[in-house]
Amino acid sequence: MLTGRKYRLDLTPDQAEFAERIGGVCRSVWNTALEQRRTYRRRDAWIGYHEQARQLAEAKQEFAWLAEVPGHCLQQTLIDLDQACSRHGTWKVRWKSKARTRPSFRFPEGAKIAIERLNRRWARAKLPKLGWVRFRITRPLGGAVRNATVSRDGTHWHVSFLVEDGALTPQRHDHPGSAAGIDRGVAKVVTRSDGIFHHQVFAREREVEHAATLQRRLARTQKGSTRREHAAAKLAKALAKVRRRRADFAAKTAHTLATGFELIVFEALPTKNMTAAVAPKPDPGQQGAFLPNGAASKSGLNRSILDKGWHRIELATRGKARYTGTCVITVNPAYTSQTCNVRTVVDRKSRQSQAVFRCTSCGHTEHADVNAAKNILTAGRAEHARPRPGARAGARKPRNHVGRKANRQATAAQGHATASPELAGIPRP
Ligand SMILES: [Zn+2]
Question: What residue stretches are annotated with the Probable transposase IS891/IS1136/IS1341 domain (predicted)?
Fold first, then answer.
């Protein structure tokens, strides 16, 4: 199975400076190539990866600053742009601004990256043109390296390797028949249908205030000044800390969920209203209650600091599920918070407050999130059991691996039944 391994790099000042430069060149190649694609489109023409790669090779003859950075990283940038444009359309792909994008570049040829262990804590990797880079080997690589991505997160540089670890998805989960519905929320990040909460505060109130102060300080500095650079670095550091906590929480929660359940049901997240949904009207006494108004809660800073990482939890769970044989599905979230899970009666008034659900019909009382999670599970079970005609294995997420195998056997048997008369040489009438 392909999996990621991320380590913190210990670059020499020269290497860090060079890495920054490579990131900058990749960014400008992205922007130039995107602008070129748009110019072509305005003239009703089209330019693709191959022509852009050819022009890049030509430009490298002319400009030393292009030639000095690893060529494969630039090519990879063009490939990434090509994929982004074909997936989202040339007009929806965004510029990479210097202030907002964190530098990142990929070395696509894993076979050419040598990795050596230096001692218990340190290892080094040889990257084209960057040379030997040291990193803290906090966990074993555990497989063959396919590619390496170098990126800066706040002040630190990291390398992440894409690794083929040779693991296979088990045929059956360790707990056959187990299932959980998952409700993601603000008051509790994750609520399970069995009444268990997974919760963590990613940024304490003081930290949120501190980030806001840093943001204001940054806004008062002049563009291009040293003071601005310092302020930006401080803010980036504060945000990176919150981001790490969120990633850690997502990984741990995903592990618990995937090892514990054979079927996990999430509510499908809205893609367009995500920004509005990240920080809904804060409850008094809850995190984020001091936010001045709803509009501010959608703004960039508050979004990055108050984000609960709902999407990330789902992604991490899907990643873990490959190792446990768990099936992860999503269902339409409509009415899950207003429906009584005992008699499936829908009434908006049943949701008495953020935390309390009391059915107006049968009087059933429960924690509102647990009730929602149970409804999500019910919907998920129905979805899971429904046969999908025409669904091919691998075309979408398989419902479960046993089912997929059974399907394959069934098709094989079918093929055999129809093929045999001809093979036997029975003459057609
Ligand atoms: Zn009821």
Answer: 170-275
